[in-house]
Design goal:
Elements (H helix, E strand, L loop, with lengths): L10 E12 L5 E26 L2 E13 L12 E4 L5 E8 L7 E8 L5
Antiparallel strand pairs: 1-2, 1-4, 2-3, 3-6, 4-5, 5-6
Length: 117
């Protein structure tokens, strides 16, 4: 991984976690609450594809989101999602890795357009 300096971290993302709560009538309501961010990030498209969802063709884009490792960003897991602050694109996080093995950056493999979570 050749990520050096802040110049490649041009995008801004925030990370959100799903929270379940009661609505006052005994029903469970699910919502997304901000966990971290916004933080500087690099969103690098890896590949695109299509899959059939409910008898329709949906496009799915896989990306790598790289951020600096911090006490906040290490809390992010595969159960969370990332939001591109500028475009509003939502990404479902599939994997979290430490690519340089030195703990300077975290890379999240994520998909946009994959509603199956």
């Amino acid at each position: 991984m050749m990520l050096t300096g802040a110049g490649l971290l041009r995008e801004r993302v925030r990370f959100e976690r799903r929270v379940n709560s009661l609505d006052g009538y005994g029903n469970t309501v699910s919502s997304w609450n901000q966990l971290v961010g916004p933080v500087a990030a690099r969103i690098k498209p890896l590949r695109g594809g299509e899959k059939v969802m409910a008898q329709r063709l949906e496009s799915v884009v896989t990306v790598e989101i790289t951020v600096r490792k911090s006490s906040d960003t290490i809390q992010v897991t595969e159960a969370d999602r990332a939001i591109d602050v500028r475009s509003g694109d939502e990404f479902n996080i599939k994997a979290v890795v430490n690519p340089d093995e030195r703990g300077r950056y975290l890379t999240f493999t994520a998909t946009r357009g994959d509603v199956s979570g």
